[in-house]
């Protein structure tokens, strides 16, 4: 379930690809700092000498001193061992002083690289500003610097300490190496063997984690859209798959961590055990008591701590450094566009109605911005089942047509003590009818459309669409019953055709052409490069986005269309043409009217007036409702005046 490639659009690898990419710049970086490396080597040689001296002096303090009856010499050698241990402090100081000569230029270089890349991407990239630049500049650069410093310290320390200790063991007695080296090298080999698979597992875990986070962010931004389109369950299933995948990746990683711990155990503890077990054999080959103690000192004091630190650092810091360096220094992320591949998958639909969904700029959580072509798209609603027949259905009870929309004594309050926005509202809309809803701002028009759409449950009463109660109905079932087009019309990055056919993926070319013609979209579609032309939401005007959303609704197979001020950015002529096309479509149309013309066009008008409601033909309502008269007067005088 995890992505087939990493988020850079490259195939997932086990780290060798990244290593190949990083190696040349790393070599150049080190080649330019030969002086620092030389000084580090000098301090490291002192460290090797120190490691050598500690075991050597302990062995001689016994063999030549205390066991030989010469306490003075014994103490002398112990003083040498103490001096060697105390030498550690100036050596560390010297090493750290040189280390800055490597880590600080590395950090400066990485920051420069990250800035250059972000600037280039912001200027050229289709996705606009690079969202991850801040992370690269701060967190990732610091991780690289710290990991690099840790690696240089431990790798260098291990090499020189091991060299000093092994030389010391050899000088005490070659047989000691025969006992100590096999478990030491065996553990080390096992550890090295885990490096590549562990790096791969780490990448997979990272990718799975990112995919999950990405999916959650996109789903959150698209919540309203998902609810309106009924794709919630599919998104939830995809989320569950991603969680399962992330868990599997973490388990695989934990498995390799266990192998690594075993390697550490073998290399870190077995040599001591082997030495203890082999004492009689070693004594038989002339290994003295002092040499044995010296060997233990080498193991416990120098070799094993250095090995332990190396394994821990190489395992964690090494993998981290590789991943982070590859992100900053490696090739720039591919320009990922939805539908970029030969087989354009359906792009994610943007959030409907949420102003936070990035419609007003590219920096928001806009899932219309380029998304990976292969991974983690929110699924399309798929081909909905055939809609219930809108015009022919009959109620079983009395032989009358089943109402397309029916509200029975519906009350809605947004809080327990809040005044109801709608109070005991009854309404019946016949199949195929065109109803306009009007009323002043904040009176409850959107609340009504949400109740009918099933995205809001009434406090009391019942809302039915095509005879079915909508409250509590699963989202995918609601999708089959109605399509809600809100004021904020969202379109997604993808082809024009994909945008139009989103609610009806099986729509043929003829259907799409008919919709384009009926809504008067020919010139807009032609300007966007035809049905196969790709569009970017932020390059469209709000009115153009509304036209595309209306065309999508026109193609929707749902028998009921709910337009909640969905034409507010259109000019009167475009609005008229779109509404007439939607009204001609088989099915019922409910429009929250934005202009008088819109109300006049409808078969009936519902005027919401506080908790009162008046419903009837335009002329009837004009006669019965003072509020409607006021509104029409305002519309006639004001900027909304239409046809
Ligand atoms: N989620 C909510 N929580 C609490 N109150 C809400 C909520 N949504 C709407 N309201 C309140 O309910 C009332 C009706 O709101 P609604 O959005 O349905 O009105 P409207 O007629 O569509 O307004 P407009 O024409 O300005 O869009 C308003 O007073 C509004 O403040």
Question: Which labels suit this protein?
Answer:
643 residues; alpha/beta; 2 domains; 6-stranded mixed beta sheet; 20 helices; 59% helix; elongated; disordered N terminus
Write a concise synopsis of the structure shown.
The chain has helices at residues 16-31, 34-66, 71-86, 88-124, 133-172, 174-221, 223-229, 232-277, 279-284, 289-329, 445-453, 475-481, 496-500, 509-518, 522-527, 542-555, 572-584, 596-601, 618-624, 626-637, and strands at residues 405-412, 422-429, 434-438, 460-465, 468-469, 482-485, 494-495, 534-535, 560-564, 588-592, 604-609, 612-616. With 643 residues, it is of the alpha/beta class. The chain has two domains: 16-329, ABC transporter type 1, transmembrane domain (ABC transporter transmembrane region fold, Up-down Bundle); 405-637, P-loop containing nucleotide triphosphate hydrolases (Rossmann fold, 3-Layer(aba) Sandwich), CATH 3.40.50.300.
Explain what you see:
It is a single chain. With 643 residues, the chain is α/β, with parallel strands linked by helices. The chain has two domains: 16-329, ABC transporter type 1, transmembrane domain (ABC transporter transmembrane region fold); 405-637, Rossmann fold (3-Layer(aba) Sandwich), CATH 3.40.50. It has 20 helices and twelve strands. It has helices at residues 16-31, 34-66, 71-86, 88-124, 133-172, 174-221, 223-229, 232-277, 279-284, 289-329, 445-453, 475-481, 496-500, 509-518, 522-527, 542-555, 572-584, 596-601, 618-624, 626-637, and strands at 405-412, 422-429, 434-438, 460-465, 468-469, 482-485, 494-495, 534-535, 560-564, 588-592, 604-609, 612-616. It has a six-stranded mixed β-sheet, with helices on both faces. A four-stranded antiparallel β-sheet has the order 2-1-4-5, covered by helices on one side. Strands 7-8 form a two-stranded antiparallel ribbon. Strand 4 (460-465) and strand 5 (468-469) form a beta hairpin. It is elongated. 45% of the residues are buried. Residues 1-13, 125-129, 333-399 and 639-643 have low confidence and may be disordered. InterPro entries: AAA+_ATPase, ABC1_TM_dom, ABC1_TM_sf, ABC_transporter-like_ATP-bd, P-loop_NTPase, Type_1_exporter. Keywords: ATP-binding, Membrane, Nucleotide-binding, Transmembrane, Transmembrane helix. The chain crosses the membrane at residues 36-56, 76-96, 148-169, 175-195, 261-282. Residues 40-305 form the ABC transmembrane type-1 domain.
């Amino acid at each position: 379930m995890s992505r087939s490639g990493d988020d850079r659009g490259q195939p997932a690898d086990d780290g060798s690809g990244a290593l190949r990419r990083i190696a040349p710049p790393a070599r150049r970086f080190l080649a330019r700092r030969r002086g620092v490396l030389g000084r580090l080597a000098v301090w490291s040689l002192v460290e090797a000498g120190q490691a050598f001296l500690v075991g050597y002096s302990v062995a001689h303090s016994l063999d030549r001193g205390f066991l030989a009856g010469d306490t003075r010499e014994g103490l002398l050698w112990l003083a040498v061992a103490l001096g060697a241990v105390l030498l550690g402090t100036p050596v560390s100081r010297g090493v750290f002083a040189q280390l800055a000569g490597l880590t600080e230029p590395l950090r400066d270089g990485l920051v420069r690289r990250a800035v250059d890349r972000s600037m280039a991407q912001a200027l050229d990239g289709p996705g606009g500003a690079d969202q991850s630049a801040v992370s690269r500049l701060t967190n990732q650069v610091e991780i690289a610097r710290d990991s690099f410093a840790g690696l240089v310290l431990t790798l260098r320390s291990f090499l020189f300490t091991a060299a000093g200790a092994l030389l010391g063991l050899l000088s005490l007695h070659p047989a000691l190496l025969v006992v100590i080296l096999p478990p030491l090298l065996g553990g080390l080999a096992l550890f090295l063997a885990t490096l590549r698979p562990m790096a791969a597992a780490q990448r997979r875990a990272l990718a799975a984690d990112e995919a999950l986070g990405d999916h959650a962010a996109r789903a959150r931004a698209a919540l309203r859209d998902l609810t309106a389109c009924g794709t919630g369950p599919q998104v939830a299933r995809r989320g569950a798959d991603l969680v399962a995948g992330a868990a599997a990746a973490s388990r695989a990683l934990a498995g390799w961590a266990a192998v690594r711990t075993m390697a550490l155990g073998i290399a870190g503890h077995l040599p001591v055990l082997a030495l203890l077990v082999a004492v009689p054999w070693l004594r038989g080959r002339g290994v003295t008591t002092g040499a044995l103690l010296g060997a233990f000192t080498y193991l416990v004091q120098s070799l094993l701590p250095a090995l332990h630190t190396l394994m821990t650092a190489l395992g964690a810091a090494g993998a981290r450094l590789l991943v982070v360096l590859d992100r900053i220094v490696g090739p720039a992320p591919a320009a990922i566009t939805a539908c970029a591949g030969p087989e354009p998958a359906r792009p994610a639909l943007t959030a409907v109605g949420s102003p936070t969904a990035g419609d007003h700029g590219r920096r928001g959580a806009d899932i219309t911005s380029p998304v990976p072509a292969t991974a983690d798209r929110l699924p399309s609603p798929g081909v909905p089942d055939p809609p219930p027949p809108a015009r022919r259905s009959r109620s079983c009870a009395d032989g009358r047509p089943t109402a397309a929309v029916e509200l029975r004594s519906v009350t809605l309050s947004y809080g327990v003590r809040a005044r109801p926005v709608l109070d005991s509202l009854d309404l019946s809309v016949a199949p195929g009818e065109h109803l306009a809803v009007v009323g002043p701002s904040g009176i409850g028009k959107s609340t009504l459309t949400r109740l009918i759409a099933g995205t809001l449950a009434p406090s009391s009463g019942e809302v039915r669409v095509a005879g079915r109660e909508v409250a509590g109905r699963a989202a995918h079932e609601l999708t089959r019953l109605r399509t809600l087009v809100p004021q904020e019309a969202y379109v997604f990055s993808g082809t024009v055709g994909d945008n139009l056919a989103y609610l009806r993926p099986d729509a043929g070319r003829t259907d799409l052409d008919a919709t384009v013609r009926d809504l008067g979209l020919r010139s807009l579609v032609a300007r966007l490069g035809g049905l196969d032309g790709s569009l970017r939401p932020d390059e469209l005007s709000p009115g153009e986005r509304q036209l595309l959303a209306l065309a999508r609704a026109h193609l929707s197979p749902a028998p009921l269309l709910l337009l909640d001020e969905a034409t507010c950015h259109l000019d009167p002529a475009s609005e008229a043409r779109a509404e007439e096309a939607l009204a001609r479509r088989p099915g019922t149309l409910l429009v929250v009217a934005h202009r008088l013309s819109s109300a006049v066009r409808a078969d009936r008008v519902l005027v919401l007036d506080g908790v009162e409601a008046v419903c009837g033909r335009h002329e009837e309502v004009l006669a019965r409702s003072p509020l409607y008269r006021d509104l029409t007067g305002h519309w006639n005088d004001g900027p909304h005046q239409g046809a």
